[in-house]
Amino acid sequence: MEPVRLWAAVVFTARNGSTEALLTAAAQQGVHPYGITALPGGFRAHCAAWQYHRLAALARKHHVRLRVQKKQGLYFRIRPLLYRTGLFAGLAVFVPLLLWAQQFIWFADASALTTGQAARAAAVLREVGLRPGVFVTEANLTAGEYALLHSGEFSWASLNFAKGRLEVEAAAAKPKPDIAAGTLHGIRAKYSGTVVRTNLISGTMLVTPGQQVEAGQGLIGTARSERDGTLIFAPAAGTVIAQFAWSDTRAVPLEETILQHTGSRTSAYEVLLFGRALLLPAAPAPENAASITRHFQPVTPLFGLPLPCSVQEVCRYEQQPQTLLRTEEQAAALARLQSLQTLYAALPDAEILARKEDRTVNGSALDYTVTYTVAADICG
User: Fold this and answer.
1) pTM for this one?
2) What's domain 107-172's superfamily in CATH?
3) Is 21 helix (H, G, I), strand (E, B) or coil?
4) I need a surface site. Which of 32, 50, 145, 362 has the fewest CB within 10 A?
5) CATH H-level superfamily of 2-78
6) pLDDT tens-digit profile of 27-78?
């Protein structure tokens, strides 16, 4: 009888009259009290709530007085709610609103990716308009997958959206093998120099160590001849390390006006909720301000659940112009650093063998010229 107690049951007492005759008549009528306990002048029992009225009618015939002691079950808990019209009105509004809200992104799940991959994927998706708080269509998802694939970060990507949850799955792009990264048009020299060493991966090496080469000269070809004279074509891939001179000239001012941070900062917030952007009131941006933008999704303070919106925060740092004076040595050190940065940007694998500097002060600037003797890959 436990299911009866869970749904709707009545605990009652029966006294006076012929209680034994009542139980017999109840059994004949299909009414089955249970949990019967003897009491002075009667008994205490349970029965299903929908059978109590039939039992009460039989009790009157046998002059037995019934008294309800307790009502048990879910039915008696929800019955008071059935008379509250406001509750049903609220449900009538809430349910359609909930179904409508599920068409917006509440949460983006990138748990299948590493932390770095998730951050890069979020940045790419944000550029195509996919972030918490926006309405989702099939066109949005297709554009998001296309953007992930063409970002160069991923070789495969899939976006699945259901009930407010955007699931991001992707595989990191794998570097191309050296042979696949070769060219069918041959490799030519970017700089003139003397070949130091070579490394052939695919194709035909056209130069040897100690050979002088000129810029534009072929280094690795795409064809090689077999013993029978047959030409076999293969992608040209490999490295040719050569020694050559690399020069850089620049002017560094001895007096310069720069913008210096004052330590003062203001923030501006934009909330994107259900596809609409709301710009919150903020203090005016300082003059000559440098700004940093970050995106985050707020959570509820009680349960820590993400809210269906995204927030863009723009931190604006105040800057004031300041005159910077440099000595000749300071200007030369800055010029040297900038030249090295330019060298390694052009030749990441460069090995510096020698350096020759020339510097002169010309008015309010330092003219700086440097020539490095380097060994680097000259394949273009």
Assistant:
1) 0.54
2) membrane protein fhac (3.10.20.310)
3) helix
4) 362
5) Metallocarboxypeptidase-like (3.30.70.340)
6) 888 888 888 888 888 899 988 888 888 888 888 888 888 988 888 887 777 7
